[in-house]
Specification:
By secondary structure, this protein is of the alpha+beta class. It has two domains: 1-37; 52-184, Fimbrial-type adhesion domain (Immunoglobulin-like, Sandwich). 17% of the residues lie in helices and 26% in strands. It has two helices and nine strands. It has helices at 5-30, 70-75, and strands at 52-56, 77-79, 84-90, 94-100, 118-121, 128-129, 141-143, 152-162, 178-184. Strands 1, 2, 3, 5, 6 and 8 form a six-stranded antiparallel β-sheet that branches. It has a three-stranded antiparallel β-sheet with strand order 7-4-9, with no helix packed on it. Strand 5 (118-121) and strand 6 form a beta hairpin. 16% of the residues are buried. The mean pLDDT is 78.
Length: 185
Amino acid sequence: MKKGQGMNNLKLQGGLVFSLALVLLLYLSAVPAFAVDDTDDVQVSVSIPPIVILTLDKESINWLSSQIGINDYNTGYTLVTKNVNCNIKSNTNWILTVHGSSQYFNETSPWQKPVGDIEWQDGGPGFNTLLWNDPGTIPVAEGGPQDGSDPDTDVQVGFHILLDWDDDVAGYYEYSDVVFTLSNT
């Protein structure tokens, strides 16, 4: 290397470094400033299943606490002394049905009294025959949040039992297969 050439290389390198620093400074001053803070969205998902809960007032199921008399036979039925209260809690539309799960009253009855001799009423006019092994044919009640129903709903179901002078001989009759079903729709 010649005398003084190393010094020129240093000056050249120093000038080059200075020039690069100056170009970088000018570039950074021309580029708009970026914020350090940043936002982003996060999606939160949850699947809420339809929930329906049916609670029956068990005390009201002792149907025949009154005596059946001549007037009951003459009118063809006896009213059950107390309604069955069905309490419904639901976060979705629902339907309440009732049916019998056996065709006849208990086997120790004096004769095979059919389940159709039990009729139910949902508070409206008239009674409906309790069908056996056919749930959902006639809804007892329907409701849910979409129709503005209270999510905690009470439905009163009344019953009466048909009587017939020819068929209903004296004796103990029991039917323990009345099934209430609450379903989401």
